[in-house]
Amino acid sequence: MLCVPNSRHSYDSHIQPHEYFWVDHQSFLLSCGYRLRPRYDPAWVPSWKLAKPKNTRPFNCEDGSSLLKDHVLDATRVTDGVKVVLKRVHSDGDEIQIALYLSSIQMSSDPRNCTVPILDVITLPDDKYVLLVMPYLRIFNTPPFHCRGEVVEALRQFLQGLEFMHEHNISHGDACLLNLMMEESRVVPKGSHFKLSSSHDGVNLNLTWRHRCTVAPVRYFYIDFGLSRWHPHGHESATALGVVGQLKDIPELSAAVPYNPFKLDICQLGRTILEVIEEYPDLQMFIPFAEHMTRPNPNDRPSATEALTEFEAVVSTIKRRTLRARIWRKTDTISERFSCFINRIPVL
């Protein structure tokens, strides 16, 4: 939804139309206890206009870049300074109902539930939309994995989380890379910037982090239930339509022929796992299990429970020493690896 400019504010020329909503609601959100970044203050003066030297460019400033998505933005909770993410959703849609159900006390008591918790719901003045307040997270595969054990823990949580959702007859609909997240506070204690996750301050590419295996446990989460659905009659009769999600080339996707959304979830997660395996040559032992999840015929794919069982069978064959051994991305050069060992600085 593109917010149409109104008479309440005049917008700096650097504010894009899809950001007007956040400028218009900055004061309201502050009254609700959430502070947006300076760029979205109605009285914002671009920092590069005040900077010395005078030829400072916008891309060299934290407040110099616009949003990629109009409905999601980070904020700071005023009471404790904790970073959160705000997402605008329809007040009467499936997304809010499913998100709140999965975040309920009853559902949260299951340790397999790794769906993102809803911390707060802000009702907007127009009543057509609400803002879901969620923890600040980062995509799960950055910073890079240090050892097989870190990968195992991430994949285990995502497989358990998918099993949990499917047990409750909920299909995710987009179980792909950009919706698989990690809670970063242990791994990146200085925090990262919402627009530039490889930076602490949104300008300098100087991210520092700790290896996940040294600060475990690290939690992983599914986000974005915009394509999720509840299927009260179970898996066998569940159907979906549409070429949707991040991966548009999954065989059964169709705008005309119904397909099973639970089998789609399996394939989406399997494809994402294969993407990670492709990046790390030392993860080849997981290829057969992931390929089973991505078979062209949906009926040949395992259920979430079966996929988890297959995964644990593979893990059981890996020696503890092998789980702890260092792994590298195939793009990491010899000089980068040597520098990492000498300086004890992670490679990014």
From TrEMBL:
Gene3D superfamilies: Transferase(Phosphotransferase) domain 1
Signal sequence range: none
Domain Protein kinase intervals: 65-314
Family annotation (SUPFAM superfamilies): Protein kinase-like (PK-like)
GO MF annotations in UniProt: ATP binding; protein kinase activity
SMART domains documented for this protein: S_TKc
Name the UniProt record assigns to this protein: Protein kinase domain-containing protein
